Request: fold
Amino acid sequence: MFGSKSVASTNPALTTRLTETWDSARTTLAPHVESARVAVAPRIAAARDAVAPLVDEASARMTPVLDTARTRLREDVAPAVAAAVENSAPARAEARDRAAAALLALRGERKKVRRWPLALGCLVAGAAAGIAAGAINRKMATPVSPTPFPAPTPSASTTEPETTPYPVSRSGGATS
Reply:
């Protein structure tokens, strides 16, 4: 065969010759096949009669065995197969995905994956977490009152006693 056409369909003379050969073979062999059928028929009938009691005995012996096998198949094997099918579903799905990806790779194609929705989702989640942390921090913070600056020291020309931000003992040194 070459392509979708056979050799016989491309050559009409060959098709005619094959048809003639087939017809002549059928007419030549038909009487031989019929005589063989007639000769073998009594032997087949004798063999059938000789084997019939053996087949009946085997059938009687095998009936309980087949019933036991049928029961075990229903009660043990079928539930185990169903459980195996159910448990293997993730692995089969993964294998199907990998096979599809391998086929794409062999063709030189790539599976188009959109990653920007994931990046945008992470960005929004981070912004929300930052806003929540800032709000909680503002609520939990205690207000801080600023300490007053020390009063300015008066100039030396005034007769007022000198004031310092720290108490001074009368002996002239700082108190401890």
The longest helix spans residues 12-87.
